[in-house]
Design a protein that fits this description.
By secondary structure, chain A is of the alpha+beta class. In chain A, 37% of the residues lie in helices and 16% in strands. Chain A has a domain at 180-220: Wheat Germ Agglutinin (Isolectin 2), domain 1 (2-Layer Sandwich), CATH 3.30.60. The first copy, chain A, has helices at 5-18, 23-38, 49-57, 86-104, 120-125, 182-190, 231-247, 290-305, 321-333, 339-351; strands spanning 2-3, 68-73, 76-80, 106-114, 132-138, 159-163, 171-175, 200-201, 207-208, 219-220, 275-283, 335-336. A seven-stranded mixed sheet of chain A has the order 2-3-4-11-5-6-7, with helices on both faces. A three-stranded antiparallel sheet of chain A has the order 9-8-10, with no helix packed on it. In chain A, helix 1 runs antiparallel to helix 2 (23-38) and helix 2 packs across helix 4. At the A-B interface, strand 4, strand 6, strand 7, helix 7 and helix 8 of A face strand 4, strand 6, strand 7, helix 7 and helix 8 of B.
Chain lengths: 358, 358
């Protein structure tokens, strides 16, 4: 069974509304989650709605935040998300960044006191229709060990950048700074398989091929896997994202990032407030005439696309190609939802007395 | 033999002056090259002076550039480097970014028509004394193959970020987005050794263990090595750096980046002007009270440093630790210079009629 985008959005919106989220905010949140489904990233899609609803029900997320710009200059702002839903806070922050960049040429809005926000690319892409480059970064729960560390101290800390082009579709890169996603490790564990070397480590920091190691104090490696293959570079990237998205606004960094699920406790004596994000917007015509940039970006895309493919491959992809193609395909055929996620949705429909439509 | 920083700087300054470079510019350039020696990165140190001098002598680099700000907003500038020495243009651009950030909170200066500029960290670190975060990126000669590409289309495209702290030394990350430096591959080749899998590929894009492959059309892999280990993330990073440091200002991107040595020809019909860079400066007090940021950054550094080391390791490093320690050591003992580099320096002293002091 495949489901229409609008049906899924409407269901998620209804469930969020029933948990006290204002209509506009419910719509914004379901838009971000369903966009992840459409773009072929279900790990950040409706799978997360269950956690969002549980966090709302238990009061761990504030359903009616009063967000506040607590610090600003002509090109910056710091937004206190008042512990609201991540997508609600993040969309507002990116809108602020776009508005400020319209005046100042470029702008950055840093966020504290927020929560899990879904796919970073969503916010970076909000800049595109304004002929701006969008940037977004976010820290995450500490699962990743710095080079030479036994302990997971950093998150998978994604970075997204969206660049508008002229006649070509935009370049949209959205990538974690860890070598593998937790979901993939957990899947191998559930299947009773081993994991190849270079992805995870034992609690003492020695190499591991056991995907169950994350449940017993092990950690994921940074992008680059080992020192020899450049894990210090992945560590540097993750550190940069952590500092810019958490230390800059005053959110929690590194090992202090609060869990994005309600069945894990929040640590006491946290150094900051909630989860942090950073959003940037660059007007392309702040650097050169806008059309000249868009033409050059078309040329860049065409140049990379025309590279000779490696033996055994058909084509060289531009960042964003796979997600855009998934979006087009799902727009035509609908998107399939995993039984586990459907079961969760059915449960919430019953609990909140909404007819289950899937 | 180990040499004093000032002696090396004075020698490099004299040689550059004799090639027509104004005193201030010669001093600026030698400062950047000797800083690389001191920080333990001789691949970007005096080894490059030979290329700089050859490029100056052959007229490939303009010894007396008239740099021009060709586009600007309150938070941005685009600087035409008039084909000057990279370090001269880059220092000026970073000064402009710092000045603009002083007013606007954050600022970015993009550069076209420049040349090889040495270590990216140098420019990012210029922000530190102003209580700003500094950022710097630069594209480079196409040696790196995008994921699924047989051809080298991107450079090792480094990214540097320098973050001030309070009582702790700053965090300074400066890393390439490729899995290995060309210099390391070439060294294995000279030694007649093979290279382990995951670093380079054959001209048809298939895996290679021959470090000589770069001389016959092969390429270096992005950070992440293979698709399975996240090479698409390294490719995304390199693409981001290429777009922001070259497409944004109108410099040459990807395969069109001009060579930084005079014995390789410049391609005809280039899409942009020279090599591109991008410099950013963020006033930390544009986001939160300055002291609060510096205190939080101290906490971040102390937290990462206190992580339990992995089995077989003594400590967890903060980005910038190894370079700062090398700088301190070299400040006490002087720095050793490779025979090959000394031979080049002696040659230039004879040619330019300067007493050889090493």
């Amino acid at each position: 069974m495949r489901y229409d985008e609008h049906l899924l959005k409407s269901l998620a919106t209804s469930l969020l509304s029933r948990c006290g989220v204002p209509d506009q905010d419910a719509l914004a949140t379901s838009g971000v989650l369903v966009a992840a489904e459409m773009r072929g990233i279900p790990s950040h899609g409706l799978l997360r709605l269950n956690d969002y609803l549980r966090m709302l029900c238990s009061g761990r997320i504030n359903s009616r935040p009063r967000m506040k710009l607590v610090h600003e200059t002509v090109s910056t702002g710091t937004l206190d998300g008042d512990n609201g839903l991540g997508p609600v806070v993040a969309r507002h922050a990116m809108e602020l960044a776009i508005g400020k960049a319209g005046e100042a040429g470029t702008a950055w809005v840093a966020v504290l006191n927020s929560n899990h926000f879904g796919i970073a690319a969503y916010y970076a892409m909000m800049a595109l229709e304004h002929r701006m480059i969008g940037l977004c970064m976010c820290n995450a729960n500490p699962l990743v060990a710095p080079t030479f560390s036994a302990e997971g101290m950093l998150g998978t800390n994604p970075l997204a950048v969206a660049v508008p082009a002229g006649s070509e579709p935009p370049m949209v890169a959205d990538f974690a700074t860890a070598v593998i996603a937790r979901g993939k490790v957990d899947l191998l564990h559930k299947q009773g398989l081993t994991i190849e070397p270079g992805f995870v480590q034992e609690p003492d920091g020695s190499p591991s091929e056991d995907p169950g190691v994350l449940g017993r104090g092990g950690a994921i490696l940074p992008l680059g896997s080992t020192r020899q293959y450049g894990s210090h570079k992945g560590y540097c990237m993750a550190a940069m994202v952590d500092v810019l998205s958490a230390v800059l606004p005053g959110a929690n960094f590194g090992p202090f990032v609060p869990p994005s699920v309600d069945w894990l406790p929040v640590k006491a004596d946290l150094p900051g407030k909630g989860t942090g994000h950073l959003f940037g917007a660059f007007r392309v015509d702040a650097f050169r005439p806008g059309q000249a940039f868009l033409d050059a970006m078309d040329h860049w895309i065409q140049t990379m696309r025309s590279a000779t493919p490696a033996k055994g491959h058909d084509r060289v992809l531009i960042p964003g190609d796979p997600e855009r193609e998934a979006e087009r395909r799902h727009g035509q055929t609908g998107v399939s939802i995993k039984p586990q996620v459907k079961e969760q949705l059915r449960h919430w429909c019953e609990k909140l007395k909404i007819g289950y439509p899937l």
